[in-house]
């Protein structure tokens, strides 16, 4: 009896080992969220911002990676603010087609007219956090294209959960200095410092202030 | 420390008191403490010595085993070589000496021809009669000038007949001589033919002798190995180590080749196997590419087995020639198929790379750089050729792989022995060190209680 069972047990053990060796690709994938400020003075940076995403982020994405473009306006915590999103196909040829299509939607976004009176960065960050978590990707990155000066519309309440940014790497990109920053650089520095404290307090994996477009590729590689 | 002071206000006195008390205590406890330290020393050092001895015995056993394995494998190898040489000799005899009877027959015929011709030449031909003497005698006869016309006429007739007879005889002799010359000249090609035949025989015999010489050499090696002397063990060990190093080098180079092969097909495989799952952290497409490379090596092993170059699988070695031929053709076909697939994948890879570059340039807003058609073709042809050739090169890895597996047993055993010996030496050194430390502790102990010991000695001396 024992001798007749043994091969079956061995077969089961081998199958179990093989199955346990198989894993989902998600943990190796990267989900990226680009928050684009369309309010106030930053609205004119749209073209520049789109170019950075097209030249710096899109080509660095690998099959299976996801990317979403979220607009920062007066009230950003809204699904309508997700302007465009894609998850790259595992076939390189199909992925290239998707990249080109996404680039077209970015171009369309860049030419869109109209800005916002207020700047709800926190709402966009919360929306982005939700998107990144939904992808279940192993690496999650949030790029914020803004001057990082938040002006909330009266009545809006924005408070992060303690684990809001868990497992998320956050980088502020192409941060332009305001006139007041030029007058007193400490205003800019303290603003950035506050953001850092705020995101790190709510579980962010890392914070990078004023990331240069030339360092983007290196940054994405370091996050993977 | 302060807690130990008897008089906290007087630390010096307290310390002095403590030292004195401990000295007295240790003096009286000298004998049992010495015994305890000795026992501890014996226990540790003895234990370590035993471990060291055990390691030494293990090393001796492993050496013996390694020697036995080396000898046995060498004996088996020599036996196999001799058996192969016998097979070759049999084939050589069959191939070279099979036509010997016909060769011999030709030689016999040629010799018989020579014999008959020689006999014909040797036949005694009728000598030319002494016509000259007869003609001269008749010419000198007196009757010719006697004036007797009848006698004169008769003599003239006789002379004429004699001259004609002489001519006929000479002509006959010349004919016979000419015939003999012809026979003798016809012997020359026969001699040349015999010479050629003898050369052929000589070459074939030399070939057979060469094979026999090889067998003799192998037999000498075999008897040397069988004898199992120290020289032969050293020779075998050096041979195995050399074989291991060279085969390892070849395997490493082949490993790099396999890596290049993998890189060549990994990207296009992601186009063919676009799965989102991973196995052992590798993408399914990468695993597929690895499987293709591994299959090429496996087919190469079967190919070499079918050709009889390697002998990894005894079942294949024991197959009939027809079955081995089937295996050979199947392996060749499989390799050709995989090589063709790789060539196609290499072309696809170039296409994907070009598309990726064009997309990246387009996204960056740059004008797509024009790649000259010729350059692109050269790259594609180069990659396709590489994709087709690499599987055949990888297929040959079976030979060094077999050598590596064979020689690694001995080399790894040698390494293991070396490591165990090193551990043995370390244990010995630690044992020696601990022994010295324990002795030093006993001496320090004795030095510490020197004052009560001396007082005790004085009291003992007085009493």
Short synopsis of the structure:
The complex is a heterodimer of chains A (224) and B (463). Chain A has helices spanning 2-21, 46-57, 92-111, 121-135, 179-183, 185-201, 216-223, and strands at residues 22-24, 30-37, 66-72, 82-87, 139-145, 168-173, 206-211. By secondary structure, chain A is of the alpha/beta class.
Please give a structural write-up.
The complex is a heterodimer of chains A (224) and B (463). With 224 residues, chain A is of the alpha/beta class. In chain A, 43% of the residues lie in helices and 19% in strands. Chain A is built from 7 helices and 7 strands, in the order αββαββααββααβα. In chain A, helix 2 (46-57) links the parallel strand 2 (30-37) and strand 3. In chain A, helix 2 runs antiparallel to helix 3. The longest helix of chain A has 20 residues, at 2-21. Chain A is globular. Chain A starts with a helix and ends with a helix. In chain A, 38% of the residues are buried. The model of chain A has no long low-confidence stretch (mean pLDDT 87). With 463 residues, chain B is an all-alpha fold. In chain B, a hairpin with a 2-residue loop joins strand 1 (277-279) and strand 2 (282-283). Chain B is elongated. The mean pLDDT of chain B is 83. Strand 1 (22-24) of chain A pairs antiparallel with strand 1 (277-279) of chain B, so a sheet runs across the interface.
Which helices and strands appear, and what pairs or packs with what?
The complex is a heterodimer of chains A (224) and B (463).
Chain A lengths: L1 H20 E3 L5 E8 L8 H12 L8 E7 L9 E6 L4 H20 L9 H15 L3 E7 L22 E6 L5 H5 L1 H17 L4 E6 L4 H8 L1
Parallel strand pairs in A: 2-3, 2-5, 5-6, 6-7
Antiparallel strand pairs in A: 3-4
Helix pairs in contact in A: 2-3
Chain B lengths: L10 H18 L1 H68 L2 H23 L8 H10 L8 H79 L2 H43 L4 E3 L2 E2 H24 L6 H4 L3 H43 L9 H23 L2 H51 L1 H13 L1
Antiparallel strand pairs in B: 1-2
Helix pairs in contact in B: 2-5, 2-11, 3-5, 4-5, 6-7, 6-9, 6-10, 6-11, 7-9, 7-10, 9-10
């Amino acid at each position: 009896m024992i001798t007749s069972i043994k091969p079956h047990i061995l077969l089961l053990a081998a199958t179990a080992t093989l199955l346990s060796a198989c894993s989902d690709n998600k943990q190796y994938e990267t989900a990226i969220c680009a928050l684009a400020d369309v309010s106030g003075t930053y609205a004119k940076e749209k073209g520049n911002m789109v170019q950075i995403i097209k030249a710096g982020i899109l080509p660095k994405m690998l099959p299976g990676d996801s990317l979403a473009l979220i607009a920062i306006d007066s009230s950003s915590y809204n699904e309508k603010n997700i302007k465009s999103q894609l998850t790259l196909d595992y076939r390189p040829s199909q992925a290239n087609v998707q990249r080109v299509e996404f680039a077209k939607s970015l171009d369309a976004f860049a030419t869109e007219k109209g800005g916002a009176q207020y700047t709800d960065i926190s709402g966009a960050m919360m929306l982005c956090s939700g998107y990144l978590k939904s992808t279940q990707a192993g690496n999650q990155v949030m790029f914020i294209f803004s001057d990082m000066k938040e002006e909330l519309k009266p009545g809006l309440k924005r408070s992060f959960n303690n684990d809001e940014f868990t497992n998320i790497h956050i980088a502020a990109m192409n941060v332009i200095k305001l006139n007041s920053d030029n007058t007193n650089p400490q205003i800019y520095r303290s603003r950035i410092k506050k953001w850092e404290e705020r995101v790190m307090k709510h579980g962010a994996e890392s914070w990078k202030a004023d990331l240069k477009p030339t360092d983007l590729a290196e940054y994405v590689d370091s996050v993977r | 420390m302060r807690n130990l002071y008897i008089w906290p206000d007087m630390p010096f006195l307290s310390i002095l008191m403590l030292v004195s008390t401990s000295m007295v205590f240790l003096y009286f406890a000298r004998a049992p403490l010495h015994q305890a330290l000795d026992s501890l020393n014996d226990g540790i050092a003895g234990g370590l010595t035993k471990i060291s001895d055990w390691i030494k015995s293990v090393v001796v056993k492993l050496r013996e085993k390694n020697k036995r394995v080396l000898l046995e494998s060498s004996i088996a190898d020599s036996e196999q070589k001799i058996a192969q040489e016998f097979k070759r000799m049999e084939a050589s005899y069959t191939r070279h000496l099979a036509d010997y009877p016909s060769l011999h027959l030709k030689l016999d015929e040629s010799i018989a021809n020579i014999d008959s011709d020689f006999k014909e030449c040797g036949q005694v031909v009728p000598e030319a009669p002494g016509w000259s003497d007869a003609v001269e005698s008749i010419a000198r006869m007196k009757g010719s000038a006697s004036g007797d016309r009848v006698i004169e006429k008769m003599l003239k007739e006789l002379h004429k007949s004699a001259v004609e007879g002489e001519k006929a005889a000479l002509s006959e002799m010349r004919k016979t001589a000419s015939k003999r010359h012809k026979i003798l000249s016809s012997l020359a090609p026969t001699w040349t033919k015999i010479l050629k035949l003898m050369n052929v025989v000589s070459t074939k015999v030399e070939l057979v002798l060469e094979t026999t010489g090889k067998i003799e050499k192998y037999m000498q090696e075999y008897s040397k190995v069988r004898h199992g002397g120290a020289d032969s063990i050293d020779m075998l060990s050096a041979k195995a180590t050399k074989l291991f190093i060279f085969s390892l080098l070849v395997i490493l180079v082949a490993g790099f080749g396999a890596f290049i092969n993998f890189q060549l097909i990994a990207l296009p495989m992601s186009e063919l196997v676009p799965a989102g799952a991973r196995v052992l952290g590798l993408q399914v497409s990468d695993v597929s590419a690895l499987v293709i490379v591994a299959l090429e090596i496996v087919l190469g092993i079967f190919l070499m087995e079918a050709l009889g170059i390697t002998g990894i699988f005894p079942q294949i070695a024991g197959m009939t020639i027809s079955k081995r031929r089937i295996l050979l053709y199947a392996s060749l076909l499989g390799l050709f198929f995989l090589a063709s697939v790789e060539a196609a994948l290499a072309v696809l890879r170039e296409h994907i790379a070009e598309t990726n570059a064009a997309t990246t340039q387009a996204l960056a807003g740059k004008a797509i750089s024009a790649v000259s058609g010729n350059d692109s073709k050269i790259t594609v042809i180069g990659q396709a050729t590489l994709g087709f050739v690499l599987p055949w090169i990888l297929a040959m890895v079976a030979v060094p792989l077999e050598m590596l597996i064979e020689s690694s047993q001995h080399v790894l055993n040698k390494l293991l022995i070396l490591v165990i010996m090193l551990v043995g030496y370390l244990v010995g050194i630690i044992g020696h060190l601990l022994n010295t430390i324990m002795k030093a502790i006993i001496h320090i102990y004795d030095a510490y209680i020197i004052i009560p010991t001396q007082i005790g000695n004085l009291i003992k001396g007085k009493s």
